[in-house]
Structures
1.
Amino acid sequence: LPVGRAIAEWEPISTVVVGIPLGEAMGQPGVMSYYASLITASLKYVDVAVLHSAQDERNVQLFLKRLERGGMSNEALSRIRFIKSLSGGFWTRDTGPLFGLNPQGGLVVFDNIYRPLIEELDAWDRAPVDIQSPDLQNDIEGFEVFRKSNRNAEVVPIYVTKFIRQNYQILSDIVRPPLHLQGGDYITDGQGSFYISEDTLLENGGSIREVEEVFRDYYGGKQLLVLNALPGNAAKHLDLLVKLVDENTVLVANSQSQPAISSPYNRRLATEMEGIRRANESYLKSKRPHLKIVGVPMLPVVEEDIEFVKRRLRFQLFATICDEIGVSYLKYHRLGKDDPQRSLVHKRVLGHAANVLGRPIDLLVDEDLDSLTRLYFDEDLNTLIDTNVDTSTIYRSYLNSLFILNSRGESAWLLPRYKPRGKETLEEIGAIEKEVERIYQSVSPGAAIHWIDSDIMAEKLGAIHCTTFTIPYLKDIKGDS
């Protein structure tokens, strides 16, 4: 369909949409506190819509009751609406729609594909598959659950379009580009320039020419820019790394120096991060020479706790010994904690390890753990800890933020706040926050600043931008598209 232009994030909005798995959120005080703060700050400027799954409908009233107990006024509560969909996870930015205008000024909803090909192809490896089992029915069911989950996430834009039609009486064209694109890896200036990461390019086959054609034909694109994403086991999305705040200004994350206790792996990540920053800035200067590039501090990568690393080594040893004595670790893992078979397997594993070492062992004792890692992994415990590669890379980015501009001209930034980790101090974090505030206020004069405690979401590999998307201010948008 003809598209006039895409809508940029700094344009006026009517609603902040927040994706919340309600039952899960209410079961975790830190997560509930995050969402309460996020909703409270947003309601100062615009309405809020909570996107949730149909299964969570029973939790809607309880969620509102929790907000009321937390001090939210009845007036504020009355401005919270709900969008029931088939999917209601944390990362609604990725599954939600993108917006644009057709040549006549009518609303266009971009409904991208949300089916990561690489993830689907890799689903068998990531599922708890027992390759020794002659009965694959459980594994097939697990794979189907994975695929169904992806399909449910794909229909979120349709439900949002219905919400807009019902609440704002705005009809819209739905455009379905043949492109797997997650919203956290999408940036536009609203004038025909679009930014994605190398990872999105890879997930769509790797041909920049073909992806450029899709943006031209479906988004009204004029230029596609492809940047490098963050290294490590992290979300490969640009919203952790760069932020376009207007047509002429881009914020870029500058990683802070790692503390002296950093592991070799995290020091390597910091080096790679700096290389990626330099490469991205060089690329932007060559492709968009008019852009003003502003560096924003980024806190060091969060390191895994040593005790967590030891616990993972115990699991790996246990699984290795299970294999050695002919016991299915996957079947053991699926047993309930009170199942007598689980206790029997545990005794067999420890008994076998004791026979191998010639003495009783306790996996909770470092000396015994060291002896077993030397025997089975050919390395001592300290070396394995020192060379550990974190299972997930937690980035604490101040660019994973949300800009709000309402119809009255009031504006605000919702910024993620992080607590000190390791040897970091409140004074150091406070100084960095002051610098972050100064930068945001310099690029958005007059905008209010609201800090939202986001450590709990960073541990899940996201923050404010990841958990939200915005619906444009629709008063001036034609409804006869």
Note: The mean pLDDT is 90.
2.
Amino acid sequence: MTTASLTSALEEQSERIATLVTERQFAADRTLEARFGERGRQKCTEDARRHLEYLSSAASAESDTLFADYVAWAKILLARLGLSDDDLAKNLVLMRDAVRETLGAPHGDAAARIVDSALGRLGEMPSVSESFLSDRQPHAELARRYLDLLLSGDRQTASTLILDAVRDGVSVRDIYLHVFQRTQHEIGRRWQMNEISVAQEHFCTAATQLIMSQLYPRIFATPRVGRRLVAACVGGDLHEIGVRMVADFFEMAGWDTYYLGANTPIEGIVESVSQRRAHVVAISATMSYHVPAVGDVVRSVRERSTGWAPRIVVGGYPFRVDPDLWRSVGADGYAPDASEAVALAERLVRDNA
């Protein structure tokens, strides 16, 4: 059995397994039909599909940690919706048994083992997530004021706050790392805790991207060092702000950057790497189910970079969860933030000279 065959089996049988989980959950608790009706059945099936999507990506990456992290995230989200650990555990047990039954040995047993690994940690997983904003961090008050303004919908004052801080001597790098990055993480946490809406999350992200663009005159003023970067999110990933920050940090380090944005097809990435003769390629994945696509990009760049061997750096949430995950996708390294991405890239280029 290969991880590819297991992933393929899970994807092919996903709808059947999700339906089976829903049928069994409603049969085991007769009150669910009266409480939630047909919409409840649909939501249960959607949740099962999502579980299976994350299970498939964890199997593909051979990382139990990825699925356990997803379960930990789901536990916090469901707790805010009034569902208990026991509710989640029962659902996961039903999924585990349905996977084992539907796929059979050896695929079903391998997938069930990943689920069991997460179930074994469920009791230790927190029911709330801690804030990303702390008084111990640099520019903590600036970050809080900025976030409060965004959540109140006051983009103009938020922009003025940042521009004034830069004029007063706060570096653009510090603004990116300690204000933009931390508040973006905090916005995601508050959505998970059901404290803000999806619309608020989207507004805050769009406002931050606009304010980032107002800092570009300072970013692009750095003398060039003769190195080139191509940066992109994989196909299907619409969360571009992280990799955009990475590209901006490379610009501040004097690199010529070619930022391709969100949801970039493999062909577009490979073509840009070839045309630009990139020294480094930075690939971002936001969700664990985007990790297989990162592996596809890495393989395609390697295979088609004839006469040129760019170094490949990966980043994004799944790689923070499992720090060894970059090896499984075939990259040259991983960086947890934009500053470390530049340091890693420069080291890789020197070693490759």
Note: The longest strand covers residues 228-233.
